[in-house]
UniProtKB/TrEMBL annotation:
One of its GO terms (molecular function) is oxidoreductase activity. This is Aldo/keto reductase. InterPro entries: AKR, AKR_Detox_Biosynth, NAD(P)_OxRdtase_dom_sf, NADP_OxRdtase_dom. It comes from Nocardia uniformis. Keywords: Oxidoreductase.
Length: 328
């Protein structure tokens, strides 16, 4: 497996992220970690709210420094306590201490805000995260499931006030769910952020595994068409359907690191083969034709203006924008 820098940091992370949300059996967890590490994988994704995921990882991990551990906070630790949830300083500090105990470690490589808390000022969250980075308990920070304008505001504040910026963004992304392309991916690329993509197999719809898929009768027409297209391209290229779905997410942007959630070492070993697959352009076109997506306003309007003489004058047809850093 190859490695990429995590955002604008020097941290090297594997090009696939191991998702641990579904892991419940300690012995299988150990086998999965061994398979992942043997393939060169080092980036692990967990969360305080993923049941016993943190505790199990702390139990089975034998070489803590070998791995880059990402965990998250925001969801409630105590449903009866109004301050046991959210992105304010108190919940951040108490959640971090809980995760450190569960993971049996004294630092977290990447500490993620799990979801935007609309009731906590982003300035408070950012300052509290900067404090735990300065304390050494957290090395880098990321944010999951938040609007692009919130992340952009936070990172701009970080630049202005010399605080730790978000180096990573975590969002759902797959052939069926491409909403991130409207604002989130261009924003992340502009700020140099890594994007860990959850749900790259579309909740099993794009996996090619009938046992992981919903009852096909419950599919929408778009889901059926997309799944059939993935299966067809997989058959043509002689690879599992999951490889096609994972390769599609990876080809969209070098910033994207798919999160591969598995329940067995055998399933992980099969999915790891996706890192060696580069989709032909005709395959990409066939997949995207099967699951149409419109970026919408304002991006499609602005892109239409790119070649409009009424906007840029009569020389617009002779303008070469390559190398223009702001172009998304």
């Amino acid at each position: 497996m190859r490695y990429r820098l995590f955002g604008r940091t020097g941290l090297r992370v594997s090009e696939l992220v191991l998702g641990t949300m579904r892991l419940r059996d300690a012995s299988e967890y150990r086998r999965i970690l061994d398979v992942f590490a043997d393939a060169g994988g080092n980036f692990l994704d967990t969360a305080a709210s993923y049941g016993t995921s943190e505790e199990l990882l702390g139990e089975v991990m034998t070489d803590r420094d070998r791995f880059v551990i990402g965990t998250k906070y925001t969801p409630t630790r105590d449903a009866g306590d109004p301050n046991a949830s959210g992105n304010h300083r108190k919940n951040l500090v108490r959640s971090l201490e809980q995760s450190l105990r569960r993971l049996r470690t004294d630092y977290i490589d990447v500490y993620w805000v799990h979801v935007w808390d609309r009731y906590t000022p982003i300035e408070e969250t950012l300052r509290a995260l900067d404090d735990v980075v300065r304390s050494g308990k957290v090395l880098h920070i990321g944010i999951s499931d938040a609007p692009a304008w919130v992340v952009a505001q936070a990172n701009t504040l970080a630049q202005l006030r010399d605080r730790t910026p978000f180096a990573g963004l975590q969002v759902p992304y797959n052939l069926l769910w491409r909403d991130a392309e409207r604002e989130l991916l261009p924003m992340a690329e502009a700020f140099g952020m890594s994007v860990t993509a959850w749900g790259p197999l579309g909740q099993g719809i794009l996996s090619g595994r009938s046992g992981q898929r919903k009852d096909p009768a419950e599919y929408t027409e778009r889901q059926r068409t997309a799944a059939a297209a993935v299966d067809k391209v997989a058959a043509e290229l002689g690879v599992p359907a999951a490889h096609i779905a994972l390769a599609w997410t990876r080809h969209r942007s070098p910033a994207i690191l798919p999160i591969v959630g598995v329940s067995s070492a055998a399933q992980l070993a099969e999915n790891l083969g996706a890192v060696d697959l580069t989709l032909p352009e005709e395959a990409v076109a066939a997949l995207e034709a099967a699951a149409p997506f419109e970026v919408g306003f304002p991006r499609d309007f602005i892109e239409g203006c790119d070649t409009a003489p009424v906007i840029y004058g009569d020389t617009v047809s002779r303008f070469d924008p390559r190398g223009y850093a702001v172009r998304a």
